[in-house]
Amino acid sequence: MAEEQARSEAEGDVLPWTVAEFFRGQSVLLTGGSGFLGRVLLEKLLFYCPDIDTVYVLLRPRKGLSVQERLQKMLDVPLFDRVRAQRPEALGRLQAVEGDTARPGLALAEADARVLAERVSVVFHLAASVRFDDPLITAVRTNACATRDLLELATRMTKLKALVHVSTTFCNVGQREFEEKLYPVAGDWRSILALVEARGQSDPVALRALTTKILGPHCNTYTFTKNLAEHIVNHYSDRLPVGIVRPSVVVATAHDPFPGWIDNFNGPMGLMVGAGKGVVHTGYSDPNSYIDYVPCDIVVKGIVLCSCEVARKGLGPPLVYNAAQSEMERITQGRVLDIAYEVGAEMPFSDTLYHPCGGVTSNRLLFLVQFFFFHLVPAVIGDALLSASGRKPMLIRLQRRIYSANMAISWFLLQNWNFLNNRFLNLENNLRPEDREGFSYQVDSIKPETFFRDALHGTRRFLMKEPDSNIPQAIRAYKRKRLIHLILKTLFYATISWIILSKLHFLLFVE
């Protein structure tokens, strides 16, 4: 088996079946189906695999909605328009299962667990907490314990062909270049899970005090627990057919089902939206470093193809795929921000707080000075005006959140990363001709300038819920605020010049 796997990777053997054939009659379990990646994966499976049996989506009740109601709400977005138009019967193949990855045993009822064990043949584990500042117990419970509990459930699945775990390229530390392989574990995962589960209940304060020591070289609980999860997957690889896909910074779709779909503020889109709304005017990052971004639809294609390869491989060490930028053209963080301002002038957001302007710097002191003058001072003035008008102050609180978020991700933004991904690219090489349309990455056609413009347009339409019809009105408002900005800027520099000239006059002419 190992020799066959090595030969397959070296020669790029074509899959023995099309993707649609592989999923014909198969039942799938998906965790994280309500997230960005999860919904795009759902759409992909429903549209390109018409004979799939059932897709079980693990969900928890939330905000008064049952899991079935949440599933229907998840589907009520433009992402699924082509499924509704061309394959409406496919939506009937979805079935919500009540569970919670933040609770022991996934909070599954035994009856549901029994059905999944009897019917599921492919598992996609996407659920995770992606917050960098989660307490250790929360991150371990959601990212590591849930992975273990899902793998335990998978050992009961009599028809299992493939289990794909979605990790992150940033889960390893100590260097700037990473191959598609497992790296040393952050610690003995069994001991860490046992410690967190025990102390989290009996002595959470002591656990918080121990967090820094437990994390070791990891800068946050997210990368630490995702590293643990990879080794938990590896532990089960002698009993289960498993694979690991590591995306880098996941951004909007490039092509499929259409350019620019996005439904969250993660990654560079959050900075671009904040800048476009006139809320963010400075950031702590290196403007000359590159963003290792990867469009969401490319990641999803890789996840699906990974399941096919895992099914062909069978048991053994997990196949690891870095779903990273690789051959796509690179773009610096500074240029991404420039594009945000350019697109902001062409199709600005409505109700901006101030005229969009600013930049990023890798100088910590300069960032703090700029944050004080461009963020905190206006926030204090704005909150005072809100209080005077009888409204609730909120700008200082907002700026505190912006600062905390910037500090949390600064470790990723101040350096360049290189994630080798030959194996990930070879997944595309193994496609059968019939699958080219639906599962080819098309990386050569992705141009950063066009991509981020489409992504910002999608952000405006899908994330901010602003129709294109209000663009003319938004442009007029943009021009008014730009004029106000220029007037205030002129007054500011005129005042500074007057002060300096007054001091010089005093020093030179007054005895």
UniProtKB/TrEMBL annotation:
This is Fatty acyl-CoA reductase. GO terms for molecular function: alcohol-forming long-chain fatty acyl-CoA reductase activity; alcohol-forming very long-chain fatty acyl-CoA reductase activity. One of its GO terms (cellular component) is membrane. It comes from the Eukaryota. It is an enzyme of class 1 (oxidoreductase). Catalyzes the reduction of fatty acyl-CoA to fatty alcohols. Residues 374-466 form the Fatty acyl-CoA reductase C-terminal domain. It is a multi-pass membrane protein. Pfam families: NAD_binding_4, Sterile. Keywords: Lipid biosynthesis, Lipid metabolism, Membrane, NADP, Oxidoreductase, Transmembrane, Transmembrane helix. InterPro entries: FAR (IPR026055), FAR_C (IPR033640), FAR_NAD-bd (IPR013120), NAD(P)-bd_dom_sf (IPR036291). Gene3D superfamilies: NAD(P)-binding Rossmann-like Domain. GO terms for biological process: long-chain fatty-acyl-CoA metabolic process. CDD domains: FAR-N_SDR_e, FAR_C. Coiled coil: none annotated. The keyword Transmembrane applies. It comes from Gryllus longicercus. It catalyses: a long-chain fatty acyl-CoA + 2 NADPH + 2 H(+) = a long-chain primary fatty alcohol + 2 NADP(+) + CoA. It is found in: Membrane. Residues 30-303 form the Thioester reductase (TE) domain. Its EC number is 1.2.1.84.
